[in-house]
Amino acid sequence: MRTPLVIGNWKMHGTQAVARELAQAVRDGLKRPRGVEVVVCPPFTALPAVAEILKGAAVALGAQNCHWEAQGAFTGETSPAMLAELGCRWVLLGHSERRHAFRETDEEINRKVASAVRHGMRPVLCVGETDEERRQGLTFTVVEGQLRAGWAGLASEDLARCVLAYEPVWAIGTGVNATAGQAAEVHGYLRGLVSELASKELAQSVRILYGGSVKPDNAQALTQEPDIDGVLVGGASLQAQSFITIAKKSAARSGASKE
Ligand code: PGA
């Protein structure tokens, strides 16, 4: 049973005032979301303000990144313990902007995933190929490598807390989303891989989100695919109304979970 999950990644947007206003509007627009679980990931500086606004709300709080150590001499980093203390139940890891702009390696991402789980958070491991890799027919090879490395060494009870996000790099922030068919193909591949890496049960229960230019007008077609269990939304999550619409359109039709 997989309840669709919709996550808003605000990236490096939102002063305190903007974040508060956006969080309030999302909270008020999704008071009792049916058949969908909703998370927002504001920038670090806005987390306390947004946590306050979301107290007792149906929308959960997540972070966009974390370090793997609980504390230490790591100037400029934020630990999972610090995030958990603020009420973050989720954390995005291995986002393509982290991999490409900040040169995060698979090994570092793996340490982060393991640490996030240890601190009681649920990591969302992002994987995806570049335009060039897709043209060369390397899509499956790339996402497989990222998934194997990102989950390496994790016990099955840890993996049960994990979510995957397929985010083709060429679709992020470009306005060109993967078609439902293109995404479904990769989601199916990833689910098969989870079965091999972990178990059939985990492959059935793990949620695999799609991300990359998700908008109110394409969310439904994407999430209607049986293997697409929700969406990770960047740009369109900065507008409360479009994010709310995406969340509603991603909800399981009957109000029930996917099987
Ligand atoms: P986008 O970003 O929706 O703006 O394409 C998605 C993401 O980076 O997670």
Brief account:
The protein has 259 residues and is of the alpha/beta class.
Characteristic key phrases:
12 helices, 259 residues, globular, binds 2-phosphoglycolic acid, 8 strands, alpha/beta
Describe this structure in words.
- The structure is a single chain.
- By secondary structure, this protein is α/β, with parallel strands linked by helices.
- The protein has twelve helices and eight strands.
- An eight-stranded parallel barrel has the order 1-2-3-4-5-6-7-8, surrounded by six helices.
- Strand 2 (37-41), helix 2 (47-54) and strand 3 form a beta-alpha-beta unit.
- Helix 1 (16-29) runs parallel beside helix 2 (47-54), helix 1 (16-29) runs parallel beside helix 12 and helix 7 (139-150) packs across helix 9 (180-197).
- The relative contact order is 0.16.
- The mean pLDDT is 96.
- Residues 9, 167, 172-173, 211-214, 232-236 line the site of 2-phosphoglycolic acid.
What percentage of amino acids are in beta strands?
5-15%
- As laid out across the biggest beta sheet, the strand order is 1-2-3-4-5-6-7-8
Helical proportion, percent range: 40-55%
Q: How far apart, in Å, are the first and last alpha carbons?
A: 5 Å
Number of helices: 12
Q: Mean pLDDT, as a whole number?
A: 96
Query: Structural class from helices and strands?
Result: alpha/beta
Which ligands appear in the coordinates? 2-phosphoglycolic acid
Q: What assembly state would you assign to the polypeptide chains in this entry?
A: single chain
Low-confidence stretches: none
| Element pattern in H and E | EHEHEHEHHEHHHEHHEHEH
Please state the CA-atom Rg, rounded to the nearest Å.
Answer: 17 Å
Number of strands: 8
